[in-house]
Amino acid sequence: MKKYIVIFIMLILAVVGHAQVQVTASVDSAKILIGGRSHYFITVYAPKGTKISFPNYNEKKEIVPNIEVLNAKSDTTDAYDKVRIRRIYTITGWDAKRYTIPTQKVIVDGVSKMTGEVEMEVQAVPIDTLKNTPMPPDDIQKVPFMWSEWIPVILLSIFALLLIGIAFYLYRTLLHKRHSWTSKKVHVLSYYEQAKHDLSEIAANKMLYQEQKDYYTDVTNVLRNYISQRYNINALEMTSHDILDSMKDVCDASDVNDLRVVFNAVDLVKFAKYSTNATDMDYYFDSIERFIDKTKNDEPAAVVVEPKEDMKDNRSRKMIKLSIGLLVVASIALLLYVASETYALLM
Question: What transmembrane ranges does the database entry give (predicted)?
């Protein structure tokens, strides 16, 4: 007897639980035109906290052939001691006929619940053949000529040609500057003439020297430069003693002795703080000058020196080249724009 009572109670609880969960299906528009939209609802009434799983129709997926789901969303509303959970599918149809959306399975707390079938109709777009009489095609219309459309194109064309003219003028100017540089003959000073020139400047500025050491250093540097170029001896890097030893084989003994007197006096002034009077200074200076005059060589001939542009001319040439490049690029861009506008006006 107890067994039947338990079974009876379980049946009652099952019936009550089933009555607490309701699953329905419906559409808001049972009739739509081809390509129109309707909303397909699956509504579940269930106690709060119930886990519900709706059919998963992704975008562009068909519920039935030619009935396509565009999107899906859900909303939840409290209804007394229950909640209403509704899944909304936006659908459309592409073939004019009557459709039956089959039952859908909804999982409620692990238990499958089925909706009912829903009918909907997709209708063709009505065409009024009496009012919508096909019309013959229109004749080709000739576009009137308007100066307001062509004047900007003409002005831009003239401006582009003007830029090309300026670029050509600058190019001719650049060529003219390049051809204007002419070669000229100049006389290059020999080492003898350079030495005489340097000694003359030292003699002219003799009174400006504050110390004899600086005076004798400049005088002997002129002599060392002359010896280096005249006898191919690295006199600038040698001591006075080494210079005199190297010149024994290329100069007369008397000339070497005269130079020894000069170098000895200069070394005393430079390194031993020795001082000479004005007469001695003139004597040593004249001794160096006599040695240079006695050992001078033939004069070099005049040579042709290639013209060189100075920094100002070089900067000017670069600016002209840059201007030519910018003008050419700008004129090409304008001509392309004019061509595109002309094509658009003629078509």
Answer: 150-171, 319-339
